[in-house]
## 1
Amino acid sequence: MTNFIQHSPSALKSYMEQIGNLSANELATKTDLKLSVVKKLLDSNEPLITLSELERIAQVLFIPSVYLTTNEIKFNPEIPEIVDHRNLENIENSTYGYNSVIREAVQARQDYIFLLESMGNDPLPFTLRLSGQDAISDAALISSYFDLNNKNKKAQHNDYYSSWRSILESLDILVIERSSHESFGSDGFCLWFDVVPVIVVLSTGQSSERRLFTILHELVHLGLRQSVFDGFVSSLSNDNSTERYCDSVAGHVIAPFEILKTLYDPNLSLDDLVSKVRNKVKASRPAVAIQLKLAGYISQEELKSYLRKLEDIKVSKRQGGEVKIPASTRIISKFGKYFVQTVISAMYQNNISSTKAKSILGIKDSHKASTFKDVQRRVHM
C-alpha cells in the first residue's frame, strides 16, 4: 500500500508564487508529476503524493519539504534587496529562472555556514568597504584587504582564474559557478552579507579570462555593499556609471597603472608587452591589454585587433571537438575547492553524514558510484 503524505494546498500556492509565480504546468514539468496530480494538489487537502514526490516539489521551490505540510509556519529565505543593472533587451524572460539562481546561491551560503558551525568554526566577517569615488584608491584597498602583494598566483589550465578565486574564498567569500541554458543577460551577480557574501559566475560560454574579471567586478559591488544582478560591461563604452566604476576598479586590481608604467617598453610587440606584464601581475591577456589601452599605451584599434586574435586562437582550439568533463570536475568547479574541502572535512569529522555531504554537493543517484570518491580524492590533491 502506498503511503501518501498530507500537504497544504495554500502553502503550495504560496511558495509557487514566491519563487516567481510558477504555474501548475511548469511545476509538473520540473517535478515529473502529472499535471492532473499537481492541479489536484492545489485544490484538495486529500493526500495524493509520496514523501519522495513531496521532496521533489520542495527542491523545485527551494524550501524544506516540511513547509509544504503546514500553514502554521512560513519559510522566508534571507535574500537581500537586489539592484538590477542588466540590459533587459533580448533576455529570455523567466521569473522562475531569475529566482531559482538566487535561491541556489542563498542555499549554498546557508550550507557553508552550517558546515562551519558543525565544526565549531565561525565564518570570517566581510569588512571590505570601498568609497565608490576613486577607482585607484579603492583598488589599493582591495589589494591591501587580500594582501595581494604577498599572494602566490599560479597559472593553471584555466589561466589565473582559480588562483584569484581561491584568494577570495580563503576569506569566506563564496564563489559559485552556475551553468544555465537560460539567458540572464549577465556574466554574474553578487549577494552582500556581513558574513559569507556570495559571488555567482554564470559560467556558460564564459572564458576563464572573462570569469576572472567577473569575480573582481562583483567583488567591487560587494565592497560597495551592493547586491547586484548586472550584465557584462565593456571597459571601453557604456553609460552605466556604477558598472563602469566596478570595471575600472577591477582593472586596477588586476594590472595597476603604476606597474604598467614601470614595465612599458615601446620597442616591444603587443604580444611581448602583454607577456611581460603578465609575468608581474598574474592576470589574463585580455585584462592586461584593456588596462594598457586605458593607460594610453595602445590604441583602441590595437586593442580590438589583439582581442580578435585571442578569440580566433580559442575558436581554433575548440574545433578539435568538445571534451567531456567528469562530474567530479563540474562539482568542484561549481562550488570551489574551499567549499568542497569544508564539506569533506565535516564528513570526516563525523559532523555530517555522507548522505548529507552528497546532498549539499548535488551528487545524485544518477551519478556514477565513483563520483563522490573522485571528488574526495581530487579536492585534497
Note: The chain has three domains: 9-68, 84-254, 327-379.
## 2
Amino acid sequence: MTAEAPAPDLLSKRRIAPRGWALVAVRLFALLLLLTLCIPAYYALAPITRHNPVPRLFLRTVGTICGLRIRKLGALPVPGSFFIANHVSWLDIPALAGATGTAFVAHDGLAGFGPLRWLCELNDTVFIARHQRATVSIQIEQIRAAMHETGALAVFPEGTTSGGVELLPFKSSLLSAIEGHDRHVAVQPVWLDYGPEAREIAWVGDEPGLDNALHILARWRPIPLTLHFLPPLTGEERTNRKTMAHGARRAIARAMGLDPD
C-alpha cells in the first residue's frame, strides 16, 4: 500500500486566511524566542550532564507552540528503548522526543542544510545514507553509539511519511544495530495516532515541506495526537532484523485496525 496525495478539496483548505497568517507570525516569533533561550541553556548544561534535558524540553515546547495536544496510552516507555514508529508528519519528531527524550535516525538529506543539521545534532540525531549500502556497517556502529549516549533512539522504518490511515512496508536494515546480542535493548512499537485529523496533518504527495509547515502553523484548532506505546517485542519477534520489522509493523497495523499482513 502506498501513501496517497491529499485530495483536491483538502488542498483547497490549505489556503491560509489573513488571521491564519497572524497566527503563523505569532508562532514563528515564539519559536525563535524559545530557540534563543534554549541554546545558551544547552551549552551551559552540556559540560555537567550526560543526558542534556534541554533538547527534550525544547522539542516538547515546539510541539505545544505548533498546537499539539498529546496523550500517551499503553505500555510505559522502557528506559533504553529502540522505538519503531509509523511516520505521518514532521510533528512526529517533537511529539515523540518531547514525550520520551529519544534521539532519531534520520535521512542524510536533512544534513544538507547547515542550521537544521546543527539543531538535529544537538538532539544526537544519527544521519544515515540510505543509498550507500557499503556504509551500512558504519551506520550500525553509529546507531549503537547513539543508543549508548542518549539512552533511547527512534526510527521511522517506512522511510517516508504516509497518510496516517495506512501503513507502508517497513525497511529492516537499520534494525541490524540491535540484532542478536543486544537483547537488553527494548524494541517498542509506537503508533502515532492523529485520529480524524490525520489526512489533514499528513505531509504526503508532492506538497512542499514549507507549505505543509505553514498550514500547520496557521491552524487555530489544536492537533490531537495519541502516542500508543505498544508492548515491546519478545521471543521469536526478536530473532533478527526482519522478524523485528515484521513484528513491529504487525503490532502497529493491528492497533490501527488494519490487516497486519
Note: Residues 18-45 form the longest helix (28 residues).
